[in-house]
Each structure stands twice: as C-alpha cells, then as structure tokens.
Amino acid sequence: MKNYVTTTIMTMVVMLFCSTTVAQNETVVTSGFSELDEWVSQCKVERPNALGYPGNYDSKLDGFYAWYTENKMENILVNNAGDPFANPSVLSSLKFEREVIESFAPLYGFDLDNLWGLVTMSGTDGNNHGLYFGVNYLKKKTGKMPVVYVSDEAHYSNYRLCDVQNLDVRMIKSDEKGQMIPEELEKVLDPTRPCLMIYAMGSTFKGAIDNQEELNKIFNKYPEMEVYRHIDAALFGGYLPFTEYKDLVNQKTTNYQSISISGHKFFGIDSPCGLFLTTREVYDNQASFDVAYLNGNMRMINCSRSGVEPLKFWWLLKTVGIKGWTQQATAIMENTAYLVSELNRIGWPCWNNKYSNTVFFKRPSSEIVSKYNLANSFDERFGGNLSHVVVMQHVKKDVIDRFIAELESTMTAVNVNSGMTSGVVVSEGKKRMYNQR
After folding, report:
1. pLDDT band at 18, cuts 50/70/90?
2. 327 CB-near residues (< 8 Å, 6+ apart)
3. Rounded to whole angstroms, how far apart are CA atoms 173 and 270?
4. 83: Cβ–Cβ under 8 A, 6 or more apart, which residues?
5. 9, HSE (Cβ side, Cα atoms, 13 Å)
6. Residues 6+ apart with CB under 8 A from 18
7. Residue pLDDT, tens place only, 193-207
8. Does 303 reside within a domain?
9. Which structural domain range is residue 385 located in?
10. CA angle 356, 359, 360 (to 5 degrees)
11. Residues sharing a CB contact under 8 Å with residue 345, sequence separation 6 or more, in sequence order
C-alpha cells in the first residue's frame, strides 16, 4: 500500500510538472498527441523572440475564449454570409460586425451616413476588395478598364491580385527608403484611362509610406482622369489612428476611396482577419447580385465569412478600446526609437522611416536571424544583406536589450578574431548615409 501511494504521488507530481512547465507563468494542457504537444511547446519557446514579422503576441483575448468555450460556441456555426448592413440572420454575428465597422470608421475619417465595410479574412482579402471595388467603380463611371499603379516595394499581394483579376498593372520605382517616386509614376501614367492607385502605407520590408500629397499632385495635372485611391494599410492602419500622425489615414484629409487594415497585426487577433472600409457611394456603384435566400444584394466578393472574427474585434473594442490602443501605439513608437538608438550606440548600421515601427539593418549572423525569426532582404544601396525587426506590443525594452546584447557579442567576437577596433567598418560617407532617417 505504501509503495502504491508513493507511486501515485510521484505520478501526480510528474503530470503536474509536465502540464505546467514550458514557459514561465504559462500552462500547457496535453492533448494526448505527442506531435501536437511538441509543436505547442516549441511555439511557446519561439514566441518571446518573434521580432521579424508584424504579429502582436500580447493578445488580449483570454476572456473571449473563456466566454466562448464556457458557452460551447464551438458547437454553433456562426456564418456571416451576407451584407453587414442588411438584415442579419440569427445564426450570424452580422449585427456585431456592423457595430465594429461603425465604431472603427470614424478613426479613418468616414462619415456613418456614407459608409460601407466588412470584416475580411485577411489584409489580402481587403486589398482584393479594394481592387475589385475600384475597377467596378471606375468602369461604371467611365466605361473603361482602369490601369493599376503600385510601388515595387508594396506588399506582393497587390501584384498577385492584379494577376488574379487580370488587370493591367504598372509597377512604379521606389526610392532607397521604399517610397514611390512621383516622377516615375508620371513617366508611365496613362491619362486616357482611369487610374486605380494603390498607396502602400508601410512597405513590406522598409516600412515606408507613399507620399500621398506629392503623388496626388501628379493626378491633379490631369483633371479629366478619374482616380480611385485604395490604401494598403495592413499594419500601419492599426496603430496610426492612435498617434499624432492619425491624419495620414483620415479619409477626409487624404481623399482616398477605400482602405484595408489587418486585425491579426496591431490588434492582436490570433488568426488572419481585417477590415475593409469604403464609402456608400463606392458600394452603390458595384455590380448587383441579388440573392433571394440571403434577402440582399451581395456585392462583396465572399459568400461565407467567419462570424467569429467580428466577435473578437467587438470584444477588443469593449475590453481594450481607444485608451488601451493609444497606450499600445505610444509604447510601440517609443520602443522603436529605443531600438534605433541602441543599434546606433553599438555602431550597427540601421534605418527607420518616419512614422514606422519597422527598423531595418545590416544582416546579423544566421544564428541570430534564426533565433529571432528575422525577415531578410537585399539592397546593395544599403550594403547588401539586410534584416528587419517589426516592433510590436511584445517587443518591449527587455527584449530589445537581449537582442542588442547578442548583436554586440558578435561584434566583440569579430574584433577578437580579426584584431580590428570595431566589428562594423563603415566609411565616413556611408556613416552619413546610415544616419539619414
């Protein structure tokens, strides 16, 4: 009996240990499938070092999932097939989706009496609607197919979607910091056809924002040319409304027709989703598809859409809200400035565009790239191989300090092995270039 009790106690201790120790203050519920449990453990190990991609790993959805599972919502299909602004069905979250759209719209300068939108499946889905709606809008107004103009540093989804929709697209050269060059746009602009302009609000690698004011001056030279402006603001559209730079995404001040924002980046939703916002005028100039069994006109691309993601957006609106997002955006911008200052302190070449939480720099060792899940690129104008860090909510100063310490240790190792006084040798001319931000 004594041996049985001892064995039982030891088994319970082992089970408790296994189910609670992977990362500090985190618990793991074992699934009974070793490959799944190993994957979860590895995710928890990798999470604190996820610096290279724009994901918010400080999600605030714990309460949502507690509510969701307690009510066994996994047994209910919540399908948002339909227009959020039409009559919602009971087994959908369309009424919550509409509330989300109407709550976010003023942050981007939209009036509620001239608004349409939906919660998308991703930022790419939002861009797909921007292109589709823009084409239909311009065709209806002019009878002509438009030309799409987009920078060569914008997200690749824009080029891919033009291919999917069989659109005539012109890729415009960007300057070394990633902004579309107005003179290059004017060289290829065809004023005999309507223009569908995609502005990159945060280029993929360098975090550049296309200068809408300067690019619009090109369009103003051709008043007879119809222009539809779509903003791809997947990441930057999340935090900019909560900063002093909020006018950059204000529809009234910048005169765009639609915008796409990701939900799984700044807002911290744990699966791809986003927002697509446009005016009611644009929506009313789309191709009509009356669907009797949905009691509405289905002008959007998708039929079935997740009804759960709008609920997550709604939950975050109620539990985090403007105040919480303002605090998060402030911290992001402060920590971005701190990372730049620390890279400068140790003499590691780096660059950061204005308004941007993306810092790109000389590529470190492959070990550091792998450990911190850094995204890589190449640009000979900046010395060749590059990496970047996207400073999200979980990239706090202690994480930055650890990253900088590892970079600095590699510089010390180079010094010792080569006898040089610095691990990074930079000419005076390039030093001046490195410090241009």
Report:
1. very low
2. none
3. 34
4. 94, 118, 296, 297, 298, 299, 300
5. 6
6. 28, 30
7. 999 999 999 999 999
8. yes
9. 322-434
10. 130
11. none
pTM score, whole prediction: 0.87
Dist CA 327 CA 345 (whole Å): 27
230's tokens: 């779509």
Separation between Cα atoms, residue 348 and residue 428, nearest integer Å: 14
Confidence of residue 413 (pLDDT cuts 50, 70, 90): low
Q: What is the CATH number of the domain that holds 288?
A: 3.40.640.10
Q: Is residue 225 part of a domain?
A: yes
Residues contacting residue 328 through CB under 8 Å, at least 6 positions apart: 239, 242, 266, 320, 393
User: Is residue 64 in some structural domain?
Assistant: no
Cβ 397 vs Cβ 339: under 8 Å: no
d(CA 258, CA 115): 10
Residue 26 — very low, low, confident or very high, per pLDDT cuts 50/70/90?
low
Specify the number of domains making up the chain: 3
- The C-alpha atoms of residue 46 and residue 216 are separated, in whole angstroms, by 43
User: Do residues 299 and 292 touch, judged by C-beta distance below 8 A?
Assistant: no
Residue 234 lies in a domain: yes
Q: What is the dihedral of CA 291, 292, 295, 299, to 10 degrees?
A: 10
Same domain? 281 vs 314: yes
3-state SS assignment for residue 148:
strand
CA distance 246 to 333: 13
Write the pLDDT tens digit of every residue in 137-164.
999 999 999 999 999 999 999 999 999 9
Contact 166, 146 (CB under 8 A): no
The domain that holds 370 is classified in CATH as 3.90.1150.10
